Amino acid sequence: MLRLAVIGHPVAHSRSPAMQNAALAELGLGGEWRYEAIDVAPPEFEQRVRAMPGEGFIGANVTVPHKGAALAVADLPTEMAREIGAANTLVFAREGVQAHNTDAPGLIAALPRSPTGERALVLGAGGAARAAIWALNAVGTEVSVWNRTVPRAQEVRVEMGRQSVRIQVAESPVEIDQGEYGVIVNTTAVGLHGEDPFEHLPLRRDGFGPEQVVVDMVYGDSPSTLLAAAGAAGATTVDGIGVLVQQGALSLRIWTGSEPPIEAMRTAAYSLGGS
Fold it and tell me: Which of 9, 17, 119, 264 suits 24 as a labelling partner, its CA being 20 to 30 A distant?
């Protein structure tokens, strides 16, 4: 049995196993490949990853809080993963551990139109934000980043600026005019536990417009409060599951070399509760 997994902490709620196993079955690989979830605390991450090739693992996805550690443990990181500073896809090859980042191209693939030439606002400064910033800038989008603490946002600007990423830091919520942005991407966890995003993010409930694309990485069994408000204003909305499907499809292609069955993956991911 060829094994794949998603590694996180916590990870029992992940939709990736159902989504990826549905894809493997659709490809006729279900009898040979299996995808599972592995909960690993940060102190044990590197040791666990190093042991996986000997246990039959071909590769793994990596989620919160291990994306930075996944890059650090890699023997062969891709240039994209190095520039972003995080990896979400590992391949256990004979030459060593390869590290890829499919978060960045997965986000672009999930958008309904190319953001080239538009202005984008990314909320947050963690690993998902870095991938979003890199991806949007790579396709010619002017990126602004807001974070709850300005020093963290400035840190991202300095570090990613070394890779010629053009980032403007929004110094405070009062400087945000969300109508100026064609694309808004929320990479923070605000709303995950029922918080009102309009009390914690520099956005107005009535500030969206029909020409915008709004992405919220937070998702559940129904549209998030943020996406519900954006959709009511006529904006095009993309939830975290839509992004997850595209990221996972790219990972699957890396591991198997096969064209991923997007619709089977989407159906499986949306049919489940959890996140």
Answer: 9
Residue 163 has pLDDT above 60, yes or no: no
Per residue in 95-117, pLDDT tens?
999 999 999 999 999 999 999 99
Q: Count of domains in the chain? A: 2
Strand order in the sheet with 119-123: 167-169, 142-146, 119-123, 183-186, 213-216, 236-239
By percentage, how much of the chain surpasses pLDDT 90? Answer: 76
Q: Of residues 3, 15, 66, 67, which has the active-site annotation? A: 67
CATH number of the domain to which 93 belongs:
3.40.50.10860
Q: How confident is the model at residue 169 (pLDDT cuts 50, 70, 90)?
A: low
| pTM of this structure | 0.92
- Kindly state whether residues 216 and 246 are assigned to the same domain: no
Can you give the pLDDT at residue 274? 41
Round to whole Å and give the CA distance between 247 and 240: 10
